[in-house]
């Protein structure tokens, strides 16, 4: 517990300076930054060698924070998240108060309410959403642990959180898109 507290403080310090972190999420290891800092978001695109037209998602700590970063959270989103058995990212229309370069061309953004205790505490204490994208170079396999992490990624971030990934059979989250008319489309199971 004490270890987690120290890691949260170190991580927040890096995030506030616009740095990149490598951290254990509720799914896989992720590369993250302050989701409201466009320069930091650009650094992730550069590190991943990824076109900035390919959107990334961000994590929030709870429903209350989610409501601050989406113009209108459709009612159906609450039901999906309440009954989801695994980590679920929902793509929302009209995101608010995040870096412009995080928002997809169709004015949407994937947001996940973090279930992992470390992530939830980190985001709650940071008071802003954090970008979460798989810790790989675009097109390469997603590493399941730090040992599989590429040297390029490890050296490209400003801080590696010194905590284990809690989810041992980590897989990327489900992705669901909710349209303005509340239509639900499964993008990734």
From TrEMBL:
<dbReference type="InterPro" id="IPR006070">
    <property type="entry name" value="Sua5-like_dom"/>
</dbReference>
<dbReference type="InterPro" id="IPR017945">
    <property type="entry name" value="DHBP_synth_RibB-like_a/b_dom"/>
</dbReference>
<keyword id="KW-0067">ATP-binding</keyword>
<feature type="domain" description="YrdC-like">
    <location>
        <begin position="5"/>
        <end position="189"/>
    </location>
</feature>
<keyword id="KW-0548">Nucleotidyltransferase</keyword>
<keyword id="KW-0963">Cytoplasm</keyword>
<dbReference type="Pfam" id="PF01300">
    <property type="entry name" value="Sua5_yciO_yrdC"/>
</dbReference>
<comment type="similarity">
    <text>Belongs to the SUA5 family.</text>
</comment>
<keyword id="KW-0547">Nucleotide-binding</keyword>
<keyword id="KW-0819">tRNA processing</keyword>
<dbReference type="InterPro" id="IPR050156">
    <property type="entry name" value="TC-AMP_synthase_SUA5"/>
</dbReference>
<protein>
    <recommendedName>
        <fullName>L-threonylcarbamoyladenylate synthase</fullName>
        <ecNumber>2.7.7.87</ecNumber>
    </recommendedName>
</protein>
<keyword id="KW-0808">Transferase</keyword>
